[in-house]
Amino acid sequence: MTVRKLGGATIEKVEEICGAGFKPARMFPKFNQEAFDAQKSWMVPDHVEPGSDRLVGSVHTWIVKTPRHTILIDTCLGNHKQRTNPGWRNLDTPFLNRLKACGCPAESVDFVMCTHLHVDHVGWNTQLVDGRWVPTFPNARYLFGKREYAHWESERGRQGDGKVNDGSFDDSVLPIVEAGKAVMIDSDHQPDPLLTIKDYPGHTPGSIAINLKDGGRQACFSGDIMHHPIQVYHPDWSSQFCTDQEMSARSRRQLLEDCVESSALLCPAHFPGANAGTIKRQGEAFRIDWDDAK
């Protein structure tokens, strides 16, 4: 993997899994085939599977190293977790070894930051040890958005069956709280001098983006505010997984406008291949100029 430098900080993507998933008509309720086809040539094969048109997605974490801290942004799916999706069930990947190979052993992590608390963003918060889910990163504080955590805690109380977010709230979030390692944060929280947080609700009630800025340059870690690069060109296409379709679309457009204004490198949670880029205006929408590092 390529290490991107931003001022005195570095950014590195570590992938857990990657592959083709949903067809776009299933993923996006507002899908339009003609609009999709107009962009398809550049999306194949990194972002769209040849022949099937299935959307290709990556599940990865971002390692951010500043002069003061080592931070993980989103922690993927995790090993040995019993999920409904067969491709996510009972994984056994060398993810921790991949982190270590990037100079990020588990004990070196200072902060784990989750853009939201969906199943594929919290999994490596914990690992199975002697039949118990325990924090994977023993020296880290785990930063959860207050509004996001409160929503899923309420959902768990309402459902009463421990199956919130496909069981991930119980096996990947609550053990962190019970271990005393969770910090509930608002958007004014600043864990490092180079990091800021901004609210972009809609995908989930408490979705956030995490901004890194140094030396006049900025990167934006946007989680699932967008899942696929077609949404850069069609920001009104919210995914079927968005809690509030219209709010998600508004937040996505605001995120893209913010990235244009700041010239930020957009670093989403699920873009494979050329997985980050700079956003430019294009008519009433936007385009992405890819950063070639993979």
UniProtKB/TrEMBL annotation:
It comes from the Bacteria. Keywords: Hydrolase, Metal-binding, Zinc. Gene3D superfamilies: Ribonuclease Z/Hydroxyacylglutathione hydrolase-like. The keyword Ribonucleoprotein does not apply. Residues 58-270 form the Metallo-beta-lactamase domain. One of its GO terms (molecular function) is metal ion binding. Pfam families: Lactamase_B (PF00753). InterPro entries: MBL_superfamily_lactonases, Metallo-B-lactamas, RibonucZ/Hydroxyglut_hydro. Belongs to the metallo-beta-lactamase superfamily. This is MBL fold metallo-hydrolase. It comes from Reyranella soli. The lineage of its organism: Bacteria, Pseudomonadati, Pseudomonadota, Alphaproteobacteria, Hyphomicrobiales.
